[in-house]
Amino acid sequence: MPGSEEREVDLLVAGAGAGGMTAALVAALNGMNALLCEKSAMAGGTSATSAGTLWIPCNTQSLRAGFDDSLGRARLYLEGLVGTGEGRELREAYLATAPAAIDYLAANSAVAFVPAGRHPDYRELPGAAEAGRGLVAKEFDGRLLGGDFARVRPPIEEFMLLGGMMVAKTDIPRLLGRYRSARDFGHSAKLALRYAADRLKYPRGTRLTMGNALVGRLFHSLRQRRVPVLFDTPVAELLREGGRVAGALLRRGAETLRVRARKGVVLATGGFGQNPALRARLMTPPAAALARSMAHADNTGDGLSLAASLGARVAASRSGGLWTPASLTRRSDGSEGMYPHFLLDRAKPGLIAVNAAGRRFVNEGCSYHDFVEAMFEAHRQGAADPAWLICTGAFVQAYGLGAIQPGTRSLERFERDGYLARAGSLAELARKISVDAAGLEATVKRYNAHAARGEDPDFGKGSTVLNRFNGDPAAPHPCLAPIERPPFVAQAVWPADISVSAGLATDADARVLDAAGAPIGGLYACGNDMASIFMGTYPAPGTTLGPAVTFGYRAALHAAAS
Ligand SMILES: Cc1cc2nc3c(=O)[nH]c(=O)nc-3n(C[C@H](O)[C@H](O)[C@H](O)COP(=O)(O)OP(=O)(O)OC[C@H]3O[C@@H](n4cnc5c(N)ncnc54)[C@H](O)[C@@H]3O)c2cc1C
Predict the structure, then answer these.
(1) Is residue 283 a contact partner of residue 302, using CB atoms and an 8 Å limit?
(2) Dist CA 112 CA 102 (whole Å)
(3) Is 396 in a helix, a strand, or coil?
(4) 498 in Cβ contact with 340 (< 8 Å)
(5) Which residue in 73, 177, 383, 457 has the fewest CB atoms around it within 10 Å?
C-alpha cells in the first residue's frame, strides 16, 4: 500500500455525528484511546442540521424541573405503539439507560441538556406524556471552539434568520411577539445585537442552538479530552483477525491509513439516506420512488455496506424511513433546499392538505412522520406527490407557511419562485396547481361547514393533544377555521426522510449481529447505522437522537469492559 500509515488505538469510531461523537467521547472518558474518523471536512452530519431534540423518558433534568414521568408509563406507551415482539430487549435497555447516559455526559463533559418542557408524545396511547420527555442541548457558544468553529456543520439555511442566526424553538414565540412585551423585545434585541457582533468576525452566528448546540458541545468535549478527529478520512474497509473485527482501513486522499483497534470499531456513518440502491432495497414502495432525503450528503450507507460484507444482518423496518413533509425552497446560492413542515403550520386553524383529486387524506395536525405515511397511503389510491397545503393569504400572514415567516407582508417573491400559488378563487387555484377543481371546491365546502361548527368528523383535526399543542390557543378553535376569503394559497409538500429506520441489527450493547443473530466480535453500530429500536414507528420528538446518544454510550461502555 503506497503511502500507507499504521496506527493502533483502543476504539475506532467512524462518523462524527451525534452517535459517533458520543461513542468516541464516552470511550475517552473511560480511559480508552479513541480515534474518530469522519468522511467529510466537518463534524456533525445530519445531527448538526437537526432540531436537536432527544426523547428521554424519565430524564433527571425534567423530573427536577417538576415534570412527572415513570418508566412504567413510557414502557406502556412503547408497547402500545411498537408492540412487545422484536426489539423489546433493546427498548428495555433504552429505557433503563437513556437517562443515565444523559446524566453521565452532563457530569463528565461539556454536553449539557435542558428540558424541552411541554412537547407531547406523538400518539394518543396509554402511557403517552404531554411534557417532560423531550430534552435539548443547552445553547452553546461556538466561540469556545476557536478555529474549530469552522468545522461545525452549519444548520440548513431554512433554519436560520438574517442569513446566519440560529434561534431555539423557545425563541420563536418571543421573536414573533417582540412588539407585545418589553421582555420579549429585550430578548429579541439581545439576539440581534449578538448576531451583529458575530458577523464582524464569523461567517454565521456563534450562538448555537438545536442540533448545532448538541454537535458543538460534543465536539468541544472531544477537543477537551484530546480525542483525535480525522476529517476527510472515511472508513473504507473493516479488518478481521481471529474471527473478530480488529481495525479498519481509512482513506485519506490517495493515502491509506491502517488502524488496529484493540477493542473494536463503532460504525456511526449516518445510515443510507443518500444511497439510491439501498433506498430501493430497504424502503417500501412508494417511499423510495417519491421521497427526497434530508440526510447529510455523505450518508451513503457505508456502515451498512461494510458490515454486510462481513455477514451482518440488515433489519428492515416498516417503510424504512422516518419522514417529514417538506416544501422545496430556493436558497440564496440558487440551489434547491427543503423546509421540513414539523410543527409551525399544519395544525393551525384554516389549513387543509389535499391530493391531486382535491381530497383530504389525513388529520393535518398529526406528526410529520404520520403525515407522510398517510401521503404514501393516499398515493397508493391516487396521486399525492406532491400533496398540497391549502389555506388563505390571511393564514400565511398570521402563522407563516413553511419557510415563510408569520407577518411576511408580500408573498409575491414566493409566488414568483414557485414556492406557493395564489388565486382569487378555489377553481383558479386548482387549475394553477393541476388539482381537480370540482374535487377541491367540494372538499373545502365540506371542511368549512364542519369547521364553522368547530368539528372535523372526517379526520379529527383538533381532536388530539398534539394537534392542539401545535394549534393556535388564542383562536376560537385552535385547529379549525373555514377557508373562505381570497386570496387562496396552495403550497406543495413532498415526502422526505429526516432519518432512516432500517439498519444493522444489533444487540442491546450495540454489537452488530450476523444472520444467525450472533454478535460479530469487535463490531458496533449506533445512530442511523443501527436499525431503529422503534421498528419504523415515530413515538415522539427525539426518536433518533435519543437512541443515537444512548447506544453510542452503551457501545463505548461495552467496549471498555471487553
Ligand atoms: C431537519 C431535521 C431535523 C431533525 N430533527 C431531529 C430531532 O429534533 N430529533 C431527532 O431525534 N432526530 C432529528 N432528526 C434526525 C437526526 O438528525 C438523525 O437521525 C441523526 O442526526 C443521525 O445521527 P447519526 O450520528 O447516525 O448520523 P449523522 O449525524 O448524519 O453523522 C454521520 C456522519 O458519518 C459520516 N460518514 C459517512 N460515511 C462515513 C465513512 N465511510 N467514514 C467515516 N464517516 C462517515 C458523515 O459524513 C456524517 O458526518 C432531524 C433530521 C433533520 C434532517
Answers:
(1) no
(2) 8
(3) helix
(4) yes
(5) 457
* Number of residues that this document lists for the chain: 562
- CA-nearest residue, atom 17 of ligand 1: 47
Specify whether the CB–CB gap between 184 and 178 falls below 8 A: yes
Determine the 3-state secondary structure of 511 from DSSP. Answer: strand
Cβ < 6 A, ligand 1 pocket = 14-20, 37-40, 45-47, 49-53, 234-235, 268-271, 294, 296, 298-299, 302, 340, 498-499, 527-528, 541-545, 548
**How far away, in angstroms, is 296 Cα from ligand 1 center?**
7
DSSP three-state, residue 2: coil
* 438-477 b/e (C-beta count within 10 Å ≥ 16 → b): ebbbebbeebbebbeeeebeebebbbbbbbbbbbbeeeeb
**What's the rounded Cα separation, in Å, for the pair 448 and 303?**
50
The mean-pLDDT minimum among 51-55, 201-205, 300-304, 355-359 falls in: 201-205
C-alpha 270 to ligand 1 mean position (Å): 5
CA of 200 to the centre of ligand 1 (A): 30
- Determine contact, residues 161/167, Cβ cutoff 8 Å: yes
Residue whose CA is closest, atom 13 of ligand 1?
50
Q: Alpha-carbon distance 220 to 406, whole Å?
A: 35
Q: What is the pLDDT of residue 332?
A: 83
Could you report the per-residue pLDDT of 159-214, keeping only the tens digit for each?
888 888 888 878 877 877 787 888 888 888 888 888 888 888 998 999 999 999 99
The sign of the CA dihedral 526, 528, 529, 535 is: positive
Atom of ligand 1 lying closest to residue 55 CA: 11
* C-alpha cell at position 42: 466537518
CA of 46 to the centre of ligand 1 (A): 3
- Ligand 1 nearest-atom number relative to CA 541: 9
What's this model's pTM, rounded to 2 decimal places?
Answer: 0.96
CA 59: distance to chain centroid?
A: 20
How much distance in Å is there from the Cα of 446 to the middle of ligand 1? 42
Burial of residue 72 (number of CB atoms within 10 Å: 0-12, 13-18, 19+)? exposed
What was the pLDDT predicted at 180?
Answer: 82
Q: What is the DSSP string of 100-128?
A: HHHHHHHHHSS--EEE--B---SS--TT-
Give the pLDDT confidence score for residue 485 in this predicted structure: 96
Cα-to-centroid distance, 433 and ligand 1 (Å): 34
The pLDDT score that the predictor gives to residue 98 is: 98
CA of 443 to the centre of ligand 1 (A): 39
Please confirm whether the linkage preceding 386 is cis (ω < 30° from 0). Answer: yes
Nearest CA to ligand 1 atom 40: 234
10-24, 193-207, 465-479, range with the lowest pLDDT: 193-207
Phi, psi of 347 (to 5 degrees): -85, -10
Ranges of H-type helices in 56-167: 60-64, 71-82, 88-108
